[in-house]
Amino acid sequence: MKGADHVSRELIRAAIAKAYDTHLHGVNMNQIVQWFDLGGEIQLSDNAGAEEVLGGLRQILGLMEKMTKLNVGPKDSPEMQVSAAEFILEGLHAHKKIGRNEERVFTAGEKQPKPAEKPMFEREEPGFGRKRSFN
Fold first, then answer.
1. How do the domains of the chain map onto residue ranges?
2. pTM of the model
3. Per-residue b or e along 59-95, where b marks 16 or more CB atoms closer than 10 Å to that residue's CB
4. Which of 2, 18, 83, 112 has CA 20 to 30 A from 124's CA?
5. What pLDDT, in 10s, does the model give residues 23-67?
6. Angle formed by the axes of helices 30-37 and 78-94, to 10°?
7. CA-CA distances (angstroms) from residue 84 to 2, 65, 90, 123?
């Protein structure tokens, strides 16, 4: 059983992922993800003004260019630009490309360790050691 908080967070994450896919399907976000993978980090504060937040968002390589896919450009209001940028970051988080904590600090995503693969033609059998199979 999962708690109500966990279930609600997963529902929101799924909704953001679906909206992100609808509006940004096929858009290459590798530059943004790489910025975070190289140690980039940003906190989006609810108390900060749009101009202040926008200044921090401009540091993320490639983010401002991707907002044009959402029909938001540099001539739009700072509030609109911040909303579009935050939508992109939340979408990347929903797809587990970048990480985010409860304080709304966006960071690099956790990399899943790759499972070690056994050679295709070798197998271990108890009591017999390694055997090679032949065709």
1. 4-109
2. 0.76
3. ebeebbebbeebebeeeeeeebbbebbebbbbbbbbb
4. 112
5. 999 899 999 999 999 999 999 888 889 999 999 999 999 999 999
6. 80
7. 31, 11, 10, 52
